[in-house]
Amino acid sequence: MNTNNDFRICPDTGLKWHRPAETLIKLNAVAAVVFLLVGGILGLGVGLTRWPEVHLLGPDTFYQVLTGHGINVLIFWIIFFEMAVLHFASSTLLGCRMAMPKVGMAAFLLMVLGALLNNYAVMVVGNSSVMMTSYVPMPADTLFYVGLILFAVGALINCFLFLGTLVIAKDDKTYEGSIPLVTFGALTACIIAIFTIASGAVILIPTLLWNLGFVSNIDAGLYRLIWWAFGHSSQQVNVAAQVSIWYLIAAVLFGAKPLSEKVSRFAFLLYIAVLQLASAHHLLVDPGLSSEWKIFNTSYAMYLAVMASMVHGLTVPGSIEHAQRARGLSAGLFEWLRKAPWGNPVFSGMFLSLVGFGVLGGITGVVMGTEQINLLIHNTLYVPGHFHATVVIGTTMTFMAITFWLVPILFRRQLIMKKLACLQPWIFGLGMTGVSLFMMGAGTLGVPRRHWDILFSGSDGGFEFSAAAITMMGLNGMSVILACLGGAAFCIIVVGSLLFGKKIGEDEKVGDVMIVAPVTDEEYATNKASLTIPGTLCMVAVFFVAFVLYYFINWKYLAQTWGLS
Length: 565
Prior knowledge:
The chain is mainly alpha-helical. It has one domain: Cytochrome c oxidase-like, subunit I domain (Cytochrome C Oxidase, Chain A, Up-down Bundle), CATH 1.20.210.10. It has a two-stranded antiparallel sheet. Helix 2 packs across helix 7. It is globular. It starts with 6 loop residues before the first strand and ends with a helix. The model has no long low-confidence stretch (mean pLDDT 91).
């Protein structure tokens, strides 16, 4: 039986925190930051090795560090944080008890064990430098596969606990009508995550048996097909989770309401229907797949997936503009944006992630997802440049932004080093934008994706890239350093706040402005403009112009490749 002692009411937000769920949110969030720190340190080694003038690591160490970097930041950091998001979006936002919290604790411990075993295989045993994709027939240590499988099982359990908590909220009638939009977005992430984890199990369990000698052979083409159903679909979990957080931040910092909940929910449903098919761009030169399959995935399916993200790219800033104008910030096109709380890292981090994800990640994703143009940059450094725009500028910066909100609201600690916290999104965002741009620039000039030494120094097959490509690799290295400084600042601020920040009582309000009252219907009624969101529409128009120009520039590059006349 539940008692009032099982819940805590937040004095700032009015949110009803179920204490066991609150504990699990904290544990998953802290574990996420720890693995972000590990992955970030390894990423610095990767970036400095790719800088030709520095070339920090030897070949064996480089591939070992690259493997550890990819797995820690793309899998462990992000999925641990997403488990925290699932618990928050179900139990806390719906104000109900969590389903089977003891099982949730067991799932968390299983994920920690899996992550530690995988890191032990990669970084200590040292015989698992197969990179995150771990393509067969390259073998890794048995613990490498066991760790990933245990981690995936823990994450899958959490997904089912999320669904169970939704059932409890429905039975207890803790909400009326449909579930909140943020919870709906988290449900989208959960559904895609179940598909993603199942795909991983379908291929990783046989690969483990192959590693142990029980299976004689794993078809390399089949492995790639199924692995990317896991590998790229995990990014769609990220997209659904980060967009949900964008809506949350718009609501808590601006009191904004979605322009149209029905349209936003439909866009989330499109993610479930088509977005995971975007993994096809990794397979466009694989001989085992038919042209019909490739054409469908890089045309009709991609159009719907891109449309879903563009809907959110319009409605999130649009809802903020609508709320700001309703409260009197209606002069010109951009007063609402100029007078937004840019000094609040929660907002600045979210808005920078939205712009970086949509412009850098979105436009380049369409280029990579178009079958013909993909040939220009397939398996070049352009590919990691693209996903640093989506996964790092998009997902990681969003998670960083909401963490600055969770420290006082959830952990009940004041942020330390507030001036540095205000600068952190700009430092990290600028650095990672440079990483993304210079990687994609070098990739366009042909720099390979996964080679320790792009110059092939000392070999008979040496190759001399253009001065522009070498310069971009140097600028990429400098950008990596800047991004790592921003990432280190985030870890120092968060960990320092949890350890040394001033405690906030359970009934005490946070001193900073971390939430505002929702905009009322009467306030919205004061906005009589013929265009409700002219500033957002202007930015969308600029986006489309850039989109079209870059898209057709790449077609021109493709035409020049063969030199036909």
